[in-house]
Write a structure and sequence with these properties.
The complex is a heterodimer of chains A (120) and B (1020).
Chain A (H helix, E strand, L loop, with lengths): L1 H17 L2 H4 L11 E5 L2 E5 L4 E6 L10 E8 L2 E7 L5 E11 L3 E5 L5 E6 L1
Antiparallel strand pairs in A: 1-2, 1-8, 2-3, 3-4, 4-5, 5-6, 6-7, 7-8
Chain B lengths: L1 H28 L3 H11 L7 E3 L2 E5 L8 E10 L9 E12 L1 H7 L1 E18 L24 E18 L4 E17 L2 E10 L1 E6 L6 E4 L1 E11 L3 E16 L4 E17 L4 E11 L2 E11 L6 E9 L2 E2 H7 L2 H4 L6 E17 L6 E15 L6 E12 L6 E11 L2 E10 L6 E11 L11 E17 H6 L6 E15 L3 E14 L12 E14 L3 E14 L11 E6 L2 E6 L2 E6 L2 E8 L2 E8 L1 E6 L3 E5 L2 E8 L7 H5 L1 E14 L6 E11 L2 E11 L2 E10 L1 H5 L5 E13 H8 L27 E14 L2 E13 L2 E10 L4 E12 L2 E14 H7 L2 H5 L6 E2 L1 E12 L5 E19 L2 H10 L9 E12 L2 E11 L2 E10 L4 E9 L3 E7 L4 E5 L14 H18 L7
Parallel strand pairs in B: 5-6, 41-42
Antiparallel strand pairs in B: 1-3, 2-3, 3-4, 4-5, 6-7, 7-8, 7-9, 8-11, 9-10, 10-12, 11-12, 12-13, 13-14, 14-15, 15-16, 16-18, 17-18, 18-19, 19-20, 20-21, 21-22, 22-23, 23-24, 24-25, 25-26, 26-27, 27-28, 28-29, 28-30, 29-32, 30-31, 31-34, 32-33, 33-36, 34-35, 35-37, 36-37, 37-38, 38-39, 39-40, ...
Helix pairs in contact in B: 1-2
The chains are: A alpha+beta (120), B mainly beta (1020).
Chain lengths: 120, 1020
């Protein structure tokens, strides 16, 4: 009986939280903060203010001149990177930004993989 | 002559008169010497105009035995004449005479039994106006002069030790003799003289007193003459003259100064005609004998002498004879020459001799054991044996006919015959010469550009040239033709072109009139040699066997011109070396033209070729035909551009081996045209490893590519029955790549990847029946392969295999060794999934769930990535998308299926067949995101999605929509986990219920699917 009570309380709490927008709404981030050169380990990402960017990984002996391009958009906390293929087509990648300020960028994908960059 | 005779006769008559007087007195008085002397002294002035003196006159018997004669002792005649060196006309110790007075008085016959002058002097003098000192007889001027009608018989007239001197100022002559012994015997009747004379003197001098001061002298003169003189005009007889130490001089020259001269002549002279006829006249000057015959006649009106003489000599030492010839006759003809030998002459002298004319002299000259040397001529000649005919005509043209000439110079034997026309002028030689020569001895005669010319040579040459050309060695102005047979030939021209041959024959002719090559042809040369080697500095060397060359060359003697030649050649074999290039040709024939060192043309036909360039290249052919031209430009930047070729090549049965190709390229037939601008392959079919090819097309802008001003463009068509792509990729990998563009290669990466050449835009249109790639054989390959500026593209290449119909567009770039780009746009239609994974194992990496299915599907795959030099993926650059559409697929992984069906509460007995499958995935780095796709199994419907990492971890979700809604998460790490939850994509495939995210996902799926299928081309 006690167990059933606990479940019921949890259910009620869930219903109450679900009705509250402030609980479910995602945070909004300033896209202008994204522009710039970010580094995570050996991975570089460079966001231009015009929605383009490029990325390279020095661990794979790739230089900045050899970086691969992408376009990006940041809506609220939804960051979409469309990586351009040289032979045509794009590879879309969606992330959720959890932190964006002057020094730090953090986002994760739907499978829980988190990426954290430091502005260069 | 007449004058001299007159003087002699007058003198004789004067003496006879005195003797007659003495005799008469003797006879009249039979007196003693004193009485006789008084009588003579008393009566002589009646006959003589000059003073006289005598010591004594007496009779003599013994001196005139058997006749009685008169002897006058110390007789002196004095007749001073102005200008004469002395007033003494005659001064002798003894004058003996025995005369027949009765004959004189009764028969007008002067019979001189004996007359002799002994020990004294005679001085005869004629003034310049003709007055003489010997005109001493008193004549009756009132009586007309009567003709000499006496007959004379001189039984013995002689002088002994008389010095006689005669000076004639009117004719400017002086003659004198010392110790003159004269014996005269003869008779004179009716102007006919018959007698003999012997004259001997110890010293004789004859000279002119004019400015020439011509003098003839000798120390001993012995003259004998026996003959007749008819009508005091026609003289016939034998003359013998012996001169010792004779000399002939003028004021300017000394012609000879000590010659012994012997003359034996049967002569005939006509005084009135002044004609001299000689029969077998032998003249010996020192030891040199000459036989003369013929006649000479002086024209009394003009003074010209007509000669018609023949002569023949004994063998003379040439050097001595030439030394005897006066310098003013020879002139400078022999200056600088040293000529000797044994000379024999025979010939004629015919023509007129005058101040303006010279007779024609012919001579058959035989020279034996001769020697010849000349200043500035490096060669000396010996053992000269020759027979020469000389026609010396100073008025017209003098010619020499060399009938035979053999000589040696050094160890060289020469023989010649021919003519020299205009001997005294241009000396036009027309010579046939042969010889056995050591060419090294003649190097100085060759142009300085010929720096070596050694050979044992047998030569036969016909040459025409003149003296000026000969002395200047202006060979290019001569005409010549002939054959030269060389042994051990070693020739070098300009220290750069060399030719060697152990045995070679050259036919040469220059100049030539034909101009087949328009190179300023000067000489034609035909060369035959069993073995011939040659080299040219900077161009390599050749070895030729069984050589036959027919060549024209320009004027090598003109140092302002470079060598030009046109050659038709035929070799048994020809081997050439240039740097590391070795070429061997079997029976090459053709033509080679060198307009100058920069303009070359070659026509070559050969039965076979074998070439090797160091260790880099080797090639063989069967029949080979090349028609090429080249204009060399040393300023060009590459070898090909420097040679600037225009070539047409036709070969068969070729084989090409390159150092960086593991296997040779076999060319059954190649027909191609090559210029610096383009290579046109009309036909090229052969075998390359396991692959066969039939290629044609063009490669253009070669010059721009080599000059770094453009790219190498081309359009080639390739047909093949079979291509082994694996083998070709292994073979051609890395050709033509510059390492300068490479970044530092990691230590771990030491393999050489395939590097695409730069600066090219070459398109290859392929029609290949079968090809092997990896382990998969594909068929009916049609499409284009292009290489453009470092990018290799397989453009919409369609082919089939047993697993599928396929279409592939691929791009490969190699900007640097450790950063290679590979992009694939791959479509497999109606493919068996198991075969797909077998053919392309990488598909399993990208979409590992596929191996859980079996059946036919349609697979579209676009992926690109950069690779390391060992072809390892650079995962950070991996991008891709895939779509698979299939029906009636079977789930193979029974264990997984059983687990899923249990968790999702499938009914027992539900088959593992999937009705349809339509899935899309993207690849980013090591993440493969499978977009939600719906599958139906039996009555179950589910949506699958998830992520598969390339480290083989995954996170999938299966949302069961029918018959119940239920979710299942499958998380794979080291240990697979299953987690049941609610259906994640309950409304994904219900458009009317899709939320924004689901709509976006579906749009992406559609976008990916459409993009992947957009490039699919219908295959025939």
């Amino acid at each position: 009986m006690k167990k059933i009570l606990h479940i019921s309380l949890l259910l009620v709490l869930t219903i109450l939280l679900a009705g509250c927008d402030s609980f479910f709404s995602k945070p909004k981030f300033d896209a202008t903060l994204l522009a710039g050169h970010w580094l995570s380990g050996t991975v570089h990402e460079y966001f231009n203010a015009n929605g383009t960017g490029y990325t390279w990984d020095t661990a794979d002996d790739v230089t900045e001149d050899e970086a691969q391009p992408f376009t990006w958009s940041l809506t609220n906390a939804n960051l979409t990177l469309n990586h351009k293929m040289e032979m045509g087509g794009v590879v879309p990648k969606s992330y959720t930004v959890t932190k964006l300020n002057a020094t730090t960028l953090s986002y994760h994908d739907n499978y829980g993989v988190t990426y954290t960059f430091i502005r260069q | 002559m007449k004058k001299g005779l007159k003087i002699i006769l007058i003198s004789l008559v004067s003496l006879i008169g005195i003797l007659l007087l003495a005799g008469g007195i003797t006879i009249a008085s039979i007196l003693s010497p004193n009485r006789l002397t008084k009588i003579v002294n008393k009566e002589a002035p009646k006959f003589l105009t000059c003073k006289f003196h005598l010591d004594k006159v007496d009779l003599t018997f013994f001196k005139t035995f058997p006749k009685i004669g008169v002897e006058i002792h110390n007789l002196t005649l004095l007749n001073p004449v102005y200008g004469a060196p002395t007033d003494t006309l005659l001064d002798v110790k003894s004058c003996v005479a025995a005369l027949n007075i009765r004959e004189f008085l009764k028969n007008d016959h002067i019979l001189v039994k004996n007359f002799k002058l002994q020990d004294g002097t005679v001085n005869l003098f004629t003034t310049s106006d003709g007055k003489t000192n010997y005109d001493i007889l008193i004549t009756d001027a009132s009586k007309p002069s009567t003709e000499f009608t006496y007959s004379v018989d001189l039984e013995k007239v002689s002088t002994e030790d008389i010095d006689i001197r005669y000076i004639d100022l009117s004719n400017n002559i002086l003659a004198q003799a010392k110790d003159l012994n004269l014996n005269i015997k003869g008779d004179y009747t009716n102007k006919d003289v018959d007698g003999q004379l012997r004259l001997n003197t110890q010293e004789m001098l004859f000279k002119t007193l004019d400015s020439n001061r011509t003098s003839v002298s000798c120390h001993q003169l012995d003259l004998r003459f026996k003959g007749t003189m008819a009508q005091l005009n026609q003289l016939d007889g034998d003359l013998k003259v012996n001169l010792s130490q004779a000399a002939l001089q003028t004021a300017a020259n000394s012609y000879f100064d000590s010659l012994d001269i012997v003359l034996n002549s049967n002569l005939s002279a006509n005084l009135s005609n002044q004609q001299l006829q000689l029969d077998e006249t032998k003249l010996k000057i020192d030891q040199y004998s000459i036989t003369l015959s013929g006649k000479a006649q002086r024209d009394t009106s003009t003074g010209n002498i007509d000669l018609d003489l023949s002569y023949k000599t004994d063998t003379w030492p040439l050097h001595d004879v030439l030394a005897m010839i006066p310098e003013n006759i020879l002139g400078d003809m022999l200056d600088g020459m040293d000529l000797d030998g044994k000379l024999g002459l025979a010939g004629t002298v015919v023509g007129t001799l005058s101040d303006s004319q010279t007779p024609v002299v012919t001579a058959d000259i035989i020279l034996k054991e001769g020697t010849f040397a000349m200043d500035n001529m490096p060669l000396t000649f010996h053992k000269i044996n020759t027979q020469v005919g000389l026609n010396l005509d100073l008025e017209h043209q003098s010619d020499v006919n060399i009938k035979e000439l053999t000589c040696y110079t050094g160890n060289n034997k020469l023989a010649a015959s021919g003519t020299i026309r205009d001997l005294m002028g241009k000396m036009l030689f027309d010579i046939n010469a042969s010889g056995d020569l050591h060419l090294a001895d003649f190097k100085q005669f060759l142009p300085s550009a010929i720096t070596k010319c050694n050979a044992e040579t047998h030569a036969n040459i016909h040459a025409k040239f003149d003296y000026q050309q000969l002395t200047a060695m202006a060979i290019d102005q001569m005409k010549a033709s002939g054959t030269l047979h060389f042994k051990q030939l070693d020739f070098c021209y300009d220290d750069s072109l060399t030719i060697q041959s152990p045995d070679a024959t050259v036919d040469i002719q220059f100049p030539v009139s034909e101009k087949p090559y328009n190179i300023g042809e000067w000489a034609a040369i035909k060369l035959r040699a069993g073995s011939l080697t040659g080299s040219k500095l900077g161009m390599g060397e050749i070895l030729a066997k069984e050589t036959n060359l027919s060549a024209y060359i320009n004027n090598l003697m003109d140092s302002t011109q470079e060598l030009k030649c046109g050659v038709v050649y035929d070799f048994g074999t020809l081997t050439g070396k240039m740097d590391t290039l070795n070429v061997h040709l079997q029976h090459p024939t053709g033509k080679f033209v060198m307009q100058n060192s920069n303009d070359l043309a070659l026509i070559l036909n050969s039965n076979a070729l074998n070439a090797q360039m160091g260790r880099d290249l080797a090639a063989t052919t069967g029949t080979l035909s090349i028609n090429a031209k080249s204009h060399y430009n040393e300023k060009a930047t590459s070898t090909l551009l420097q040679w600037n070729p225009e070539a047409k090549i036709d070969l068969s049965q070729g084989m090409l081996v390159l150092n960086n190709l593991e296997i040779p390229v076999s060319v059954q037939k190649l027909k191609a045209d090559l210029t610096t601008e383009q290579l046109t392959i009309k036909q090229a079919n052969g075998q390359f490893g396991h692959s066969d090819f039939d290629l044609n097309g063009k490669i253009v802008d070669i010059d721009k590519y080599l000059d770094n001003k453009g790219v190498l463009a081309g359009n080639l068509n390739l047909k093949s029955n079979y291509i082994d792509i694996n083998q070709i990729m292994d073979i051609v990998s890395g050709m033509g790549v510059e390492d300068s563009i490479m970044a530092e290669v990691p230590e771990s990466s030491k393999e050489d990847p395939f590097m695409v050449p730069f600066g090219m835009d070459v398109r290859l249109n392929t029609h290949i029946n079968r090809a092997l790639y990896e382990d998969v054989e594909v068929r009916n390959i049609g499409g284009h392969v292009s290489v453009k500026d470092g990018i290799l593209v397989l453009d919409e290449m369609g082919f089939t295999s047993e697993a599928a119909r396929m279409q592939l567009t691929a791009m490969y770039k190699s900007p640097r060794k450790n950063h290679l780009f590979l992009g694939l746009d791959f479509h497999l239609l109606d493919i068996k999934i198991d075969k797909l994974i077998e053919m392309i194992p990488e598909v399993d990496t990208v979409m590992p769930m596929l191996k859980s299915f079996a059946g036919n599907a349609e697979f579209h795959f676009a992926i690109e990535t950069y690779l390391k030099s060992n072809y390892d993926l650079k995962y950070s650059t991996l991008r891709g998308a895939a779509a698979i559409n299939g029906k009636d697929l079977v789930v193979l992984d029974q264990e997984t299926y059983n687990k899923i069906s249990k968790l999702l509460r499938f009914k027992k007995g539900t088959t593992n067949r999937i009705d349809s499958l339509s899935a899309e995935a993207t690849i980013f780095k090591n993440e493969v995101d499978v977009y939600p796709f719906a599958v139906s199994i039996d009555k179950y419907q589910a949506v699958l999605s998830g992520r598969h990492n390339l480290d083989m971890t995954y996170n999938y979700n299966i949302s069961l929509l029918k018959p119940i809604r239920l979710g299942l998460d499958i998380i794979g790490t080291d240990k697979r986990k299953f987690k049941v939850g609610k259906a994640k994509y309950a409304t994904m495939f219900k458009p009317e219920k899709q939320n924004v995210v689901e709509k976006n996902v579906m749009q992406l799926k559609t976008q990916i699917n459409n993009a992947l299928k957009a490039n699919v081309k219908e295959q025939p």
